[in-house]
Specification:
The chain has strands at 2-5, 8-11, 21-22, 30-34, 53-57, 67-73, 81-86, 90-93, 101-109, 122-125. The protein is mostly beta strands. Strands 7-6-9-10 form a 4-stranded antiparallel sheet, with no helix packed on it. A 3-stranded antiparallel sheet has the order 1-2-3, with no helix packed on it. It is globular and about 50 Å long.
Length: 127
């Protein structure tokens, strides 16, 4: 069940649960791409290539003590699969493939496991 009020998304996750968790209030979910690069160094040693990755960052929820669940899909609007939980407002996705477009959303999860609605979606297309 989803409702909005006061500008924040709300969602009740567990059937029969009467608690509401304030939405992640994730104003800006941003993706930064990191892809392989080459470096010419002296001494003949070449550092290993940097693996493709996407760095996500978002604005913290105004609800204290929350963690965040990071989701990814390959189609805009979902469906999304859970990638990982984060206790900070950033996450690096190393399980990406060059040439693919990924769509990300984040939720806030309170200490009892109640989860907010999805944040705004952001996308990243790897070269």
């Amino acid at each position: 069940m989803t409702r909005t009020g006061g500008g924040y998304p709300w969602r009740r996750e567990r059937k029969g649960c009467r608690r509401w968790v304030m939405g992640a209030a994730i104003v800006a979910l941003a993706a930064v791409l990191h892809s392989s690069c080459s470096s010419s160094g002296s001494g003949g040693s070449t550092p290993p290539p940097v693996l493709p990755s996407v760095t996500l960052s978002w604005t913290a929820s105004p609800t204290a003590g929350v963690s965040y669940e990071v989701y990814r899909g390959t189609v805009s609007g979902g469906p999304y699969a859970s990638l990982n939980s984060a206790t900070t407002t950033s996450y690096v996705d190393y399980s990406v493939v060059s040439g693919q477009t990924y769509y990300y959303v984040v939720t806030a999860v309170d200490s009892t496991g109640d989860e907010s609605a999805y944040s705004n979606e952001t996308s990243a297309t790897l070269p």
